[in-house]
Structure formats: C-alpha cells, structure tokens
C-alpha cells in the first residue's frame, strides 16, 4: 500500500495518485497526512516517525516536504526495516531512520522522466518511483522502459537507482545534530490538539508541561479533567500531546507551530 505524506492537499495529491496508478494499476494511494508542517522537514520528520511506526511490512510512504525542490538536494528511496520512504534528501527521513530496529538502506533516485517539473517532483518523480516500487513488491519486477534508464545501467528491481549509487544511510543524509526529542509543538490535528516532538516516556509521574508561560498537568485522558480544562497526555503514538477537554488547545491556549515546550 502507498501512503501520501505532504504539506499540500488538493489538487496536487490527486495528480500524484494518478501518476502512481499509471505505474501500479489497481493500487490506490491513501492520504496519511496532507497538512504536515509546511516547508519544515525537521518537524515533519518527527511527525512522520510517529505516524508510520505501526504500518504493515511493505508499506510505501511518498513524502513531500520539499522546500528545496529543483535544487541540489538528492531524491531518495530509503528502507527502514520493512517500510519504504520516497522523497527528498533534506532530513525528512532522519527520525524514521533512527527508529529502525533491524536494517536501513538508502538509494539515490537516478531515473528522470522525460517531462520533469522543476517545482513538482512529488508528481513527476516520487509518485512514479513509488508506483513502480509497489508493483515490483507485489509481482516481483519488470522493466520501467528505456526512458527510465537514461544512463544505460540496468535498474534495480524498483528501477530507481543503481547498486553502485547506494547512499550511505549513516553518512551524508543523516542529521546527527538533531536531538532525539524535539521540545516544540510539531503539529496540530483537526481538534486543535498540539503534538509535541517529545516522547511520553520522558515525562515524570505527576509532571507538568510548560508552554508560553502556562503550566499544564499530565493526565491519562480527557475525561480526567473538567470540560474546557487543559491537559497533557500520552497520545496514540507514544508522544506528549497538549489538549483542552472539549475544545481546541491551539485556540484556547494561543499555541503556534514551533512553540517551545518544557517538561518539569
């Protein structure tokens, strides 16, 4: 199955689905998240790590938070354990790579389509590669065609890189200076709940979270506090989250993406 993770919605996601369907007829791409932190691979990477951890083996994630599109950054295919990620080399895959338990490997995408938009690699490059990868996983291979091999080198089974151009996943594409826990608000869901980039296991029993001068207590779930009261809790992805029971933490607490948080 293919899932889209990006910082844009319609009509662009529909165009990406169409390109995927051309390479893998009968396969439908689902939206995982289409409002990821815009232009911010670092925050988006933390969200991506949390959302993808429980997906089945063979899942493919087309990830497009790509402010450097058309520039020097490389297009990649990354395998983290049994999950595949397709997207730009800008740190977006750092946290999924850190979460890999068994194996990770990365390849630079060397194929280019005949018509490649400078500003929409999600549609013209990443989506076709993901479709081809999905097809090869399901049926064992096949050729992309002569136009998919401009360098004259036989492609790997997914047709996106040559074995000699594997990228060292422990080297240039990594971001060792990024902390394991991101003490910031990294995403707001449709309820106005604020995801942080902090693992819940770092929160002490009876602890509190400080954000914008507000001290918010930790509770197990929403009903543990009165209606309209704020709380901090462990969300479904094992991360610290800020909420208001029956309301929007984003609006009620005047929170913004990137606001710093502190645990005490």
From TrEMBL:
Keyword hit for Aminoacyl-tRNA synthetase: no
Assigned keywords, A-Z: S-adenosyl-L-methionine
S-adenosyl-l-methionine hydroxide adenosyltransferase C-terminal domain ranges (all copies): 184-262
Highest taxon of source: Bacteria
Membrane-traversing stretches: none
Keyword set includes Phosphoprotein: no
InterPro entries the UniProt entry points to: SAM_HAT_C (IPR046470), SAM_HAT_N (IPR046469), SAM_OH_AdoTrfase (IPR002747), SAM_OH_AdoTrfase_C_sf (IPR023227), SAM_OH_AdoTrfase_N_sf (IPR023228)
Domain S-adenosyl-l-methionine hydroxide adenosyltransferase N-terminal, residue spans: 2-136
Coiled coil residues, start to end: none
Entry-linked PANTHER family: CHLORINASE MJ1651 (PTHR35092)
Family of this protein: Belongs to the SAM hydrolase / SAM-dependent halogenase family.
Protein name per its UniProtKB record: SAM-dependent chlorinase/fluorinase
